[in-house]
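Example 4.3 (complexes with small molecules)
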Amino acid sequence: MLELMKLVNEAKSIAIAGHVRPDGDCVGSCLGLYNYLTENTKEKQIDVYLESVPAAFSFLKNTETALSAAKTDMVYDLFIALDCGSRDRLGFTEELFLSAKHTVSIDHHISNTMFAEYNHVEGEASSTCEVLCGFLVDSCISKETAECLYLGIVHDTGVFKHSNTSRRTMDTAGGLLEKGVSASQVIDDSFYRKTYMQNQILGRCLLESILLLEGKIIFSCVSQKMMQLYGAVPADLDGIIDQLRVTAGVEVAILIREEGVQNYKVSMRSNGKVDVSKICCLFGGGGHKMAAGCTMNGSIHDVINNLSGQIEHQLMAYSE
Ligand code: 5GP
Ligand code: MN
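Answer. The structure with manganese (II) ion bound is encoded below.
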């Protein structure tokens, strides 16, 4: 077991960082640990780095404190990477990671490359927030910290419905509720509430979705033009893939977002038979068995053909 608190105690300066395009678990774990450490330690310089914080998470304590540019002159005693499966996914904090005296990675991605000096990866855990709770002293967790951690668990479990939700997940979340977190407020405000624009894009994605492989695959694609038309950022697409996935008969849902010329960000979700992490790993990405992503180059037809070929291959092996 990683002695996180021993490393923290010995460090005078600590950087906490997540992955590019931070999601709920990433923001929740980074701010949760930041709040916990700033509330319970003295005389340390602690910085939390997040590329951006989606507006729906802005009620969390210290969102405004998170840094979106690296303090390039800093050499941290300890760098803690959270929810980040590989070094390159750190994005703008990679240089700080490289220069830090000690590095720790706490994560729940089975595809984690063990890129830090100390790696603690629980592939079975619902979320990094769940893993993190195992390191924290319960009596030192404030309501504000609990809110961050609860939000992370809510998001990575799709509000406690994905297969990664275990007894421990519920126990952990229950413990956080006892700190005074309002479950319905966190869930509604950060997960279900959508802006008019977000709902319009959702509608278009559903309308323009295409079924492949006798309805076992559903995919939809968001072009750069569409993103510009709606003034959308990637976080505005959160939840769309989940709606695609619950289409009756579907085994795998794919949402593709055009990032540049012949350059696509791919999100995949499985209903159980297909390991989408394996597929995304083949194309340089990663994630979990039921939720994974990667970046692919080529025409949209190539991207779809490559992905559907891999899905078909796994489905054939499954039925044999
Ligand atoms: P999403 O589709 O929500 O962006 O990501 C689903 C899961 O796959 C998340 O756990 C995320 O960390 C992981 N993931 C998404 N894209 C990539 C990627 O390009 N590389 C890696 N290693 N993991 C990814
Ligand atoms: Mn996560």
